[in-house]
Amino acid sequence: MISKKNTKNFNQLMAELDGIIVDLQSSAIDVDKMMIKYKRATKLIKELKKYISEAKINVNKIKLD
Q: Please, what is the Cα angle at 33 between 37 and 9, to 5 degrees?
């Protein structure tokens, strides 16, 4: 389960990812910054997948109750 300590919520993570996507689509960003943002985006995607996975588990638990 995702720890609530020092963890952004789903919407905050999505907003950060959306911002990175906009930055990566810009032709003004240099390659070094692009790589840093790309790495951060991949971490955000993993965190978002965890949220979705946990949500599915919780929905299934509710269905069984």
A: 25
